[in-house]
Amino acid sequence: MSDFTHVPGAVRRRTAVLTAGFDPSLSVGSARPAVFRSSTYVFASPEEAEHAFGITTGKIKMENGARADLIYSRFSHPNAEILEDQIVPLEGGGQYATVYNSGMAAIMTAFFAYARPNSTIVYTTPLYGGTTGLIQKFLAPLGVTGIAVASGQTEAIETAIRTAKNCSIVYLETPANPTLIMTDIERACEAAAAHPDKPVVMVDNTFLGPTFQHPLQWGAQIALYSATKYLSGYSDMLGGVAITDRAEIVQKMRSLRGMFGNIMQPDECWMLDGRLSTVALRMNRQSKNAQRIAEALHGHKLLSRVIYPTLFTDPEQKRIFEKQCDFPGGMFSIEFKGGKDAAFEFLRHVRIARNAVSLGSVESLTCHPRSTTHSGMSQQELAESGVTDGLVRISVGIEDWRDLLADFDQALTAVEA
Ligand SMILES: *Cc1c(COP(=O)(O)O)cnc(C)c1O
Asked: For the segment 384-403, what is each residue's pLDDT rounded down to a tens digit?
């Protein structure tokens, strides 16, 4: 995959994230953006106000996804615009971004932009619990039918897309949480492109993006993020991002965001903006750490499985990983032969990694999905997606991997005793 941004002749992504999108002269020469906490913006003339509202209400069409002048901070504000412009180069194939006050807010806005009454959404399962709830508990009663298909089943996913009637959205989350099952984005996009309804393909790219996986380059139209995780990276803020290559998509999502009032606030935008230049550094370290630890734990006598992309054995999963991902990432799961008791005993003895949900932070976090993040799933869904009693999920941070491994080893010894 090309390391260059979408602009011909431009610099590489890691340079662009520090140079594009922020003009110091608009922040009185400050080297870092100022925070603009204002709720409203002053117009130079009544004509200018009229023109800005014309754009925001869609009466005046802007070329190439250009923005209206600033009006009122629920629609947009300078820190959102700076963040949006600086984040685009990180997502290969991206042209436009919109930012939200959580990952769920970004996902919800994308769904509301494209779900129609009496339409279907084909989605891979398992999905993040909040997204499953949005489809099954909120959209279904409004007449939008979810069609679930197991992650990673390339042919079954193609068939589900091909046979879906009045299909508005194809929604993928890859790798799936917590078993890291990968779905072939390109194959799903080809099936969607061949469908007469031209469903919009959205990919939740929270686990491997924006550093290791680029859905838009495989043909997806929207890459979605919980910026709460790797993008912000310090377990200290909530945020969501949608990135697309289509002007009409960004216009629709901006307009809904203004209606819902779920834009990311200026202070959060400023914080996240400062974290963007280190996301690749952090994720590279997290991936290297996770790989060393997962491979070292592989084959441990208390564990029935260590789930990590470099340890995949299924040929289709290996194929997708090699095709689609630049690195295996900072998440792995271990499954105890001794079930829930052994898993809980392990969590009680781990000292460095903290027992918390969420992921992607510089500090390691570990949790028991079946009793926490995935406790809302039915018995059948749990069995199908491999979320067993003995499964523990680990989000690896940037600590020294040898200390983490020694800590996991002593916790395993304690489980044995
Ligand atoms: C956390 C998460 C979300 C939801 O994001 P919030 O920022 O908590 O709203 C969505 N998808 C995935 C894969 C996540 O991990």
From this structure: 889 999 999 999 999 999 99
